[in-house]
Prior knowledge:
Blueprint: H1 9-30, E1 32-34, E2 41-43, E3 50-52, E4 57-59, H2 63-72, H3 76-94, E5 97-99, E6 111-118, E7 142-148
Antiparallel strand pairs: 1-2, 3-4, 5-7, 6-7
This protein binds zinc ion (2 copies).
Amino acid sequence: MPEKSEASVEEILARQALDLDRLKDAFGLLGVSPCSWCKKFLRRSDPGALFDAGGELICYSCIPEWWPQRCAQLSTKDRESLEGKLVFWLRDYHHAELFKDPAKLPESSLQELHIVANCLECRGTGKSLGQERCRYCDGRGTVWVIVSRKKG
Ligand SMILES: [Zn+2]
Ligand SMILES: [Zn+2]
């Protein structure tokens, strides 16, 4: 095999990509993963740090920016299931509250996160099984998911 004195740009890039992959693997072993959106590394074991959106991990601070763009790319069915998962995750880890009346939302300066979602109970139809008005969303089919700013 002839030895090359100078590596081509492609070779250097390929080597760097390999190094980067190895680095990512190493980070993975350490229990940290990058947010797919801002690329910041976060500890996976921190509850509520990263949302697993089925293949991609999104950090909490990127959710408001990421979600509207992500859900625009999804089919109705996929959007529904991912949205449900996201709402539960926000409730479990970030004490998100669901509001059915937009007039009752906390002041916007007190909101840390604000997402409008389909009502999980009636799947956005506004009707319960008996065709009555869904009481979880007051028949709007929409709920407001709010995380309040932490005080102090
Ligand atoms: Zn992020
Ligand atoms: Zn409903």
